[in-house]
Amino acid sequence: MGNPENRRVAFFREAVRAAGLEPVRVVSWLQVLGGEAAFGAGETVRIDSPGEDAEVERLLRGVDDPTRVEGSARWYAGFLAAVGEVARAASAAGAELLASPGDLATLFDKRLCHALLESAGVAVPASPTSGPRAPEVRGWSDVRALMREHRMPRAFVKIAHGSSASGVLAVETAGPGRVRAITSVERDAEGRLFNSLRVRRYSTEREVGAVVDALAPDGLHIERWLPKASQRGRAADLRIVVVGGRATHAVVRTSRSPMTNLHLGGARGDLDEVRAAVAAVGGSWREALAVCERAAACFPGTLCVGVDLLPAAGWRRFAVGEVNAFGDLLPGLTGLPGSGAEGLDTYAAQVAAVLDRTRNDHAVTSL
């Protein structure tokens, strides 16, 4: 289930073909949103991202320009309603979903996801907006007050239902009126917000406040801005893909800005250097991967997630910044040594995990 022309769907179709299975049947997001999705008994249903399709974006977010930032709360409501209908149709037909609606509801609300991870003992940045009973953030004045109250001179301000760094600001304060923010959000003369591929800086409280006030109606989440480790003079973090409970793929992301997303000018770093840096300070690379596996275990109904792992300066400690439902788009990346996914990309690893699970289920049934 995805957008048929999307490269994510193409990669998964190829993984299924390479495994010698029957061709994938694609149910489009437009079919789903039009109430036309149907499933068959015994089918395995993979839900993929509804992104990168202008008409799907228009239906979910109510905007004609897919680069607009606003509308994420509406997107979230429409996405969950559609996923719920898919789950009911699949259950009635006797099909199996590879991601549960409950997991997706939490994964796409940063406030709920943060609280769930924290309750499970997963290290996360401190946040005053974590959980369903956190105070509502109505605009910049609330953000400023919460940062001050919780002694956060540096914080990430994020829209609650965003992804791919959409609506994220890295905010620094230094006394009354001294504020600056780094973000990919561009505000036009009419006050509309757009996602840009260029990271920019806002250097006055008036500018930062105007952006935050425009984002606030969709819901905001605030996290302490943790100083990251660096690689070759660039800030570094990692995207770890966890499939079937096991960390299978890892990529280092480096940037000269706080946002390391590869589409925002980030670059892939050297994983061997990361492992060496962790070992040099007496740390454990295996424990770093285990942090991601514990985060993924919070979503037992979902086969695959992408975990954003934040290494603290010095490479000794790690925290989880995000858990992504659709965090497996890492073309050309093969599995980690000892992961069981050696030689497989992220999509092939998921196909293999489904086949292994099916074989195990059959073995148990035959006992």
What is Rg? 21 Å
**How much of the residues is beta strand, in percent?**
15-25%
Output the structural class: alpha+beta
Instruction: Count helical runs.
Output: 11
Secondary-structure element string = HHEHHEHHHEEEEHEEEEEHHEEH
How can the largest sheet be summarized? 6 strands, antiparallel
From the N-terminal CA to the C-terminal CA, the straight-line distance is 34 Å
Oligomer: single chain
Summarize model confidence as the mean pLDDT: 94
Helix content: 25-40%
Overall outline: globular
Low-confidence stretches: none
- The total of beta strands comes to 13
Protein name: STM4014 family protein
Explain what this protein looks like in three dimensions.
The protein is an alpha+beta fold. It is 35% helix and 21% strand. The protein has helices at residues 7-18, 29-33, 54-61, 72-93, 101-107, 110-119, 140-149, 205-215, 271-280, 285-296, 346-366; strands at 44-45, 96-97, 154-159, 169-173, 179-187, 193-202, 220-224, 230-231, 234-243, 246-255, 267-268, 304-311, 318-324. Strands 8, 9, 10, 11, 12 and 13 form a 6-stranded antiparallel beta sheet that branches. A 5-stranded antiparallel beta sheet has the order 6-5-4-3-7. A hairpin with a 5-residue loop joins strand 5 and strand 6. Helix 3 packs across helix 4. The chain is globular and about 65 Å long. The model has no long low-confidence stretch (mean pLDDT 94).
